[in-house]
Design goal:
Layout (H helix, E strand, L loop, with lengths): L5 H13 L6 H28 L6 E7 L5 H12 L5 E7 L2 E10 H22 L13 H29 L8 H20 L15 H9 L7 H9 L1
Antiparallel strand pairs: 1-3, 2-3
Helix pairs in contact: 1-2, 2-5, 2-6, 3-4, 3-5, 5-7
Pfam families: DUF2786 (PF10979), DUF7168 (PF23771)
């Protein structure tokens, strides 16, 4: 995902507008939504180029470490980013802690997942230091509230990315092969390769969370910056 790519440059400009303190909250959300659409468009373009033989794109893996606190919830956020982008995840657990997650998919999609997840994790972490449970549940554990906050944040991100990916497929320009067929074939190839490698493993049981932060987290996730170049800009600023 080269910094000189014109699609990513458009995303940078949209997010710069969204970050302008002079714009309204509604305008900022509109800019963020458009950025999410362009992220999806980028994924479709890479898929079509690979399908036509104009570029190489192979199935591979990337192992991403998870750190406490809330390692299981961070892993859930990563999965919520990966699945709409046609990747699969494998959680490496030790007891209740998730030590790392392996992302499985086409290289171009794994790249999108890594950049988006890292950016979203930083955004969520910044907000987690400020959020507190309200007064509706006196004595509620801060940790319980934050776990459900992260669950809501991840769910909203999943919904936004899923919608953007579906729209990108629906509105793709017609070609020798339709984007819908290309995306479906790639998703099937990834699932088949994943099942071949890890099909004998059991799925984890659903978690039961008791905190009240879901809706606050969902609201934050619905407004989160989905710019895949945010991490690159942030790294430059820290140098």
């Amino acid at each position: 995902m080269s910094e000189s790519d014109p699609q990513l440059e458009r995303i940078r400009k949209l997010l710069a507008k969204a970050e302008d303190p002079a714009v309204t909250e509604a305008e900022a959300e509109a800019y963020n939504q458009k950025a999410a659409e362009l992220v999806a468009r980028y994924g479709i373009d890479q898929a079509m180029l690979a399908a036509s033989g104009a570029s190489a794109d192979e199935i591979g893996t990337l192992k991403i470490p998870m750190n406490d606190p809330y390692s299981r919830d961070k892993a859930s956020l990563l999965t919520s980013v990966a699945y709409p982008l046609r990747c699969r995840t494998l959680l490496h657990r030790r007891g209740q802690k998730v030590e790392s997650v392996t992302v499985f998919g086409f290289r171009s999609d794994i790249g999108r997942v890594e950049l988006l997840f890292t950016s979203l994790l930083l955004q969520a972490g910044t907000q987690l230091t400020r959020v507190r449970p309200g007064g509706l549940f006196p004595g509620e554990s801060l940790a319980a509230y934050r776990r459900t906050w992260l669950h809501g944040f991840a769910r909203a991100v999943h919904e936004r990315l899923s919608h953007a990916e579906q729209e990108a497929v629906r509105t793709a320009a017609p070609g020798e092969r339709s984007a819908e067929l290309v995306v479906r074939d790639r998703a099937q190839l990834v699932q088949h390769a994943f099942d071949t490698e890890y099909g004998g493993l059991r799925s984890a049981a659903p978690r039961l969370l008791s905190g009240s932060g879901y809706f606050d987290g969902h609201d934050a996730g619905s407004k989160a910056n989905l710019d895949p170049s945010a991490l690159t800009r942030r790294r430059k600023a820290l140098r």
